[in-house]
Amino acid sequence: MNKKKKIETLTGETLVKKVKELENLSKEEKARACGYYTVTKSGVERVNMMKFLNALIDAEGIELDGKQNGNGRGGRSASYRISVQSNGNLLIGSAYTKQMGLQSGDEFEISLGRKHIHLRQLDREEGDLDEELEEAS
């Protein structure tokens, strides 16, 4: 089995310089050259474009959401992706509920689409939550 050593994942100014050096390559080739890929168990390389693009945005110091973490503490930021847990539950984390200003006890109506889940907050007269969720996706 021929194993290649994974390239170091570049960040910050090093990432920006490398991307500028590789201006003639496609974005997928740039991401791979900067270490933003994984190798599956079967040996297939998969480029992680989201991590690459997010690292570039961070390296350039661009703030897309216009919000700073005001409490000064670290923690997980919202990735806008969740997975079904092994017990079949779908957990929406506190990063999302805090961002939306939700409180303990807030209730929602759930409606299921073919491959979508829509939530509508009950007792909320202005701007249904389902519209806000659709905008985020």
UniProtKB/TrEMBL annotation:
Domain SpoVT-AbrB, first and last residues per copy: 79-124
Superkingdom, taxonomy of origin: Bacteria
Keyword DNA-binding among UniProt keywords: yes
Keyword DNA-binding: yes
Keywords in alphabetical order: DNA-binding
Protein name, per record: AbrB family transcriptional regulator
Species of provenance: Funiculus sociatus GB2-A5
